[in-house]
Amino acid sequence: MDKYKDWTKEQLLSHIEKLESQTSTNGTATPTTTASGGKPSKKQRKQQRPFDMTKYRQRRIALKVAYLGWNYAGFAAQGDEVNIPTVEDQIFQALGHCRLIVDREHCDYSRCGRTDRGVSGLGQVIILNVRSKQLASDTTNENSQDDLLPATEELTYVDTLNRALPDDIRVLSWAPVAPQLNARFDCRSRTYRYLFRKDQLDLTLMQQAAHDFIGNNDFRNFCKLDPSKNITNYHRRVLKCTIYPFSSTITSLDSVGCRDMVYLELQGTAFLWHQVRCMMSVLFLVGQQLEAPTIVKDLLDTTRYPARPDYPMASDLPLILYDCEFDTITWQNAPPATQRTATHWDQLSYAQHIRALTCDLFLSNTMSGDASAMASIEQSVLDANNKKKVVLGGGSSSLISSYKPLSGRPQCDSDAMKKEKYSARKRKRDQVGQEE
């Protein structure tokens, strides 16, 4: 402060006025010097300049996204990213941070699927308009798609976004697409995989029942009904429903942790809310020989079962949106970006492997010295109180004293009944609102 001690009042006021004139409209001072008295760094000056999206061309692209859904309330944003975190929220935050879009409302966004809470995705596809590397001044017709940059010369969309995304979400590849392409309506098929252990399940019976899902069927008894959406058609076409042994390039777990894993691969044109988890729940009942394989065909017959019997859904943990098929998308896979993504998943896999081995060690220690008890774990269908365990997947099960067949269980409200109740509640809410 010594340099100001000899200044007059007028000089001090003039200096203060000069400093105030350098303050930006948002109240942040535009630095003319650094703390050490020198000029601001290039990074500091760059942060002061607002990004002008209009200087760049826009292009329509598809992104293939992989994510571990365990920590999210589903893929689709629900308007409350703090209390209801979703994968889509994270993607849009990354898109905005990287200055690839202005906001969601102005990028003509579409998604292929709305995976639910806890469900993971390996082949999720989204399509939207993003900023190109190409300047708007480099073309005479901004709306033309003919003179866009070749994909190999574009921005490194994969690496750019992955640097801004959390560890459990990664963009796998991108592709330039036609302006009218829509991720939801132009998808030819969607493929899900559901992982589970063989244990005491009869896979032959499960496959026999799974075959009856194939074709164009009414799946209202294999989904969760939502009267607010006013769905009138519950027919969906299943193209494939097959059980396969699970194979991995990763070393399998040892001792008790090494159990035969299998998965159901389910391919269809579209799916209803919770459809796959309901299908798996019934298949587990068949695999435990609690229901005959013909139960699938019976439940698909809405004259025989006008409403879904009361049964729980299978766990969300093992469910993966494995692939989304399109006719016109050619994915761009740059080897360096692919290698970086592969290394990232390898590191996460290693960490999860350590967690699984730790649980395996705890299990072995708990059962130490009791070989017969250890051997019975895989085969036991009873808990310590001799209650029957009904498999729900993902390590989950329900306990029952005695099994009641689906044919003898109470049925949930039918689609018509749910819609009638929903309409009555809506009329009541509207009436209360008018009175207020």
From TrEMBL:
Sequence ranges assigned to domain Pseudouridine synthase I TruA alpha/beta in this UniProt record: 209-327
NCBIfam families: hisT_truA (TIGR00071)
Low complexity bias: start-end ranges: 23-39, 397-408
Family label: Belongs to the tRNA pseudouridine synthase TruA family.
Keywords in alphabetical order: Isomerase, tRNA processing
Any Pfam family matching the protein: PseudoU_synth_1
Positions of the UniProt region annotated as Disordered: 18-53, 397-436
InterPro entries: PsdUridine_synth_cat_dom_sf, PsdUridine_synth_TruA, PsdUridine_synth_TruA_a/b_dom, PsdUridine_synth_TruA_C, Pus3-like, TruA/RsuA/RluB/E/F_N
Protein name: Pseudouridine synthase I TruA alpha/beta domain-containing protein
